[in-house]
Amino acid sequence: MKQEFLFRLADHAYPADELMPLTCRGRVRGLEPSRGDIDDALGKFSLTLIDTLDTLALLNKTVEFEEAVRRVVADVRLDNDIVVSVFETNIRVLGGLLGGHSMAVMLKESGRMVWYQDELLHMAKDLGLRLLPAFNTSSGLPYPRVNLRYGVRGPETRTGTETDTCTACAGTIILEFAALSRFTGDPTFEAHARRALDFLWEKRQRHSNLVGTTINIHSGEWVRRDSGVGAGIDSYYEYLMKAYILLGDDRFLQRFNTHYASIMKYISQPPLLLDVHIHKPLLPARTWMDSLLAFFPGLQVLKGDIQPAIETHEMLYQVTKKHNFLPEAFTTDFRVHWAQHPLRPEFAESTYFLYKATRDPYYLEVGRTILENLNRFARVPCGFAAMKDVRTGSHEDRMDSFFLAEMFKYLFLLFAEEEDLLFNVEDYVFTTEAHLLPLSLSTASNSQAPPLLDDSNFEWTCPNTRLLFPDPAFPRNLREPIKSAVDNSCPRPTTHRNYNSNKMSLSSSLQAVSAVAAEDGMRFMQEMMELSSQQQKEQLPPRAVQIVSHPFFGRVVLTAGPAQFGMDLSKSSSGVRGFVTVAEPYKGCSELSNGEIVAGRIALLQRGQCMFAEKARHIQKAGAIGGIVIDDNEGSSSDTAPLFQMAGDGRNTDDVTLPLLFLFHKEGNILLEALKENREVEVLLSDKARDRGERLSKTVLKHFELLHF
């Protein structure tokens, strides 16, 4: 196979932590606008490269894997003065180093990489030692963040003041820390991870045997008492089961079985999984589900409880087919609650495990749907972009490291034949980040002898699925009513807040004594007009600006705000397609001087100086077929700001018949840069992105290069 992965990584992102696939550059923390807690995963340690090491080995790209290991060893520093998430750094970086080490040892034993002398393991231990200060609490639960150079104590750390952490954050440590202890012979790491798990177990609600979502790391009091299997708790349950599989300690299985019985009693309402209150488990805590719970059917397969796994997975698949991807959250009637989708792998993970358990070819069709949707809706020229809104198909300039670390592995394994695999994956356990840890670690040194096991709760652990389902039609019969239930639901009309900026008093615009004050006053009047209009009109959903010309071919979709006047794109089956031209004057507040060029095209305008309807009238008079207003507030982005909706000017706007859309500054710059680099840029204005027209072939292996940087 071609060795393209590292070359593309170097071209676009290396040594940055992540790729920004729309702007084709690396994301470096501190150089890009903060995204809040999301950025805590970034530590200036080439995150995506480390997170993807064992993916390269799994796909039998041994030359690229070896070169990637050399780069990590030579270039990555772990002593950066930066505050990172303990949870994310553990599962992505420590897990990535340990998975890479496992693969390097396996290759060395087969006669390759003979130069390797445990360099990745040494780095893993260095990182583990840098994470240990976070566990210096009276409870043993770790602080949620740690400074890689200074720890958690002292002003130079810029952390250590937090009091709360999520259950998954504290309970998803044991696999990586235990593996590190057993690889190195140092029991310290495993001991700290066990102590954290023991504390969480002791703090479970004794009546319901459920845990809350957020806990105080000092007192052990539950801060958020809602309980589910999705965000905030998910991998805690996963790691109890997998700790038993990896380490052979029966205590973990006992705890998992106890929790699982309560999950199935209170949270599971097949095919739904609904959060409840830990003290009143019969009382629902919310009426929507988040996409992270999509891992749970896969965990149920490991448990051996196949029937509810099939039912919940089918519900998730039908939601996926309705929206192309799983929304970050959706309601019990399968409508969008949060519209984002950051290319999460959990649904693909469960699809793989269900196929392994049942060998039902139906799950190959599910996998094919996932692949086709990725290629049709998420693929952009420099990688794969997260979905800003599954309803419109618009993108975020984001490709998290877990896309290559997890999504790739599970889709590849779903379709791979035995001869495609370099080693037997049954000899490994997957961490929550899909890193590969060898089961042989269960026989490594462990000073704690497990107690004798009470096996009274083993009834549903690892049954023979052929005996469970002797009738091949049985899984299909489980799926059909769920398919019908989702098909009969309909999307929810969405509501959005409006974007506000530069608030001034109305009198300041009336008494403006300078051009700047007048501009601010006009902006305030515009926002007051929008607010008044929004109180009278129903909020409109977002629109899409899709770049369809070469070299984009529809792969870049920008989230656009609608106008409350002009052409309603939701009533157009084809949208409005045309080449873009910058209006002169750019503000579009007077008759255009380049009207002959704008005629028959989509005009680009800058926000400011006059009302939106006035801009629309000027470009319409010049013969434009549409308009795009670009925000003049530098740094504004649909990633961080609510949807902006353009109102009229208080007068009748029935004379405006063309479509007018609004782009924030960041998205507008993507369009302007495309215009600089290409002589002609053609876009489609529509209510949602149209089919990109490309499909992946039946196997991931043949098209691995498509997903590279």
UniProtKB/TrEMBL annotation:
Q: Which reaction does it catalyse?
A: N(4)-(alpha-D-Man-(1->2)-alpha-D-Man-(1->2)-alpha-D-Man-(1->3)-[alpha-D-Man-(1->3)-[alpha-D-Man-(1->2)-alpha-D-Man-(1->6)]-alpha-D-Man-(1->6)]-beta-D-Man-(1->4)-beta-D-GlcNAc-(1->4)-beta-D-GlcNAc)-L-asparaginyl-[protein] (N-glucan mannose isomer 8A1,2,3B1,3) + 3 H2O = N(4)-(alpha-D-Man-(1->3)-[alpha-D-Man-(1->3)-[alpha-D-Man-(1->6)]-alpha-D-Man-(1->6)]-beta-D-Man-(1->4)-beta-D-GlcNAc-(1->4)-beta-D-GlcNAc)-L-asparaginyl-[protein] (N-glucan mannose isomer 5A1,2) + 3 beta-D-mannose; N(4)-(alpha-D-Man-(1->2)-alpha-D-Man-(1->2)-alpha-D-Man-(1->3)-[alpha-D-Man-(1->2)-alpha-D-Man-(1->3)-[alpha-D-Man-(1->2)-alpha-D-Man-(1->6)]-alpha-D-Man-(1->6)]-beta-D-Man-(1->4)-beta-D-GlcNAc-(1->4)-beta-D-GlcNAc)-L-asparaginyl-[protein] (N-glucan mannose isomer 9A1,2,3B1,2,3) + 4 H2O = N(4)-(alpha-D-Man-(1->3)-[alpha-D-Man-(1->3)-[alpha-D-Man-(1->6)]-alpha-D-Man-(1->6)]-beta-D-Man-(1->4)-beta-D-GlcNAc-(1->4)-beta-D-GlcNAc)-L-asparaginyl-[protein] (N-glucan mannose isomer 5A1,2) + 4 beta-D-mannose
Q: Which GO terms describe its molecular function?
A: calcium ion binding; mannosyl-oligosaccharide 1,2-alpha-mannosidase activity
Q: Does the keyword GTP-binding apply?
A: no
Pfam families in alphabetical order: Glyco_hydro_47, PA
Which positions are tagged coiled coil? none
Write down the required cofactor(s).
Ca(2+)
What does the UniProt keyword field contain?
A: Calcium, Endoplasmic reticulum, Glycoprotein, Glycosidase, Hydrolase, Metal-binding, Signal, Unfolded protein response
Show which residues constitute the signal peptide.
Answer: none
Protein name, UniProt field: alpha-1,2-Mannosidase
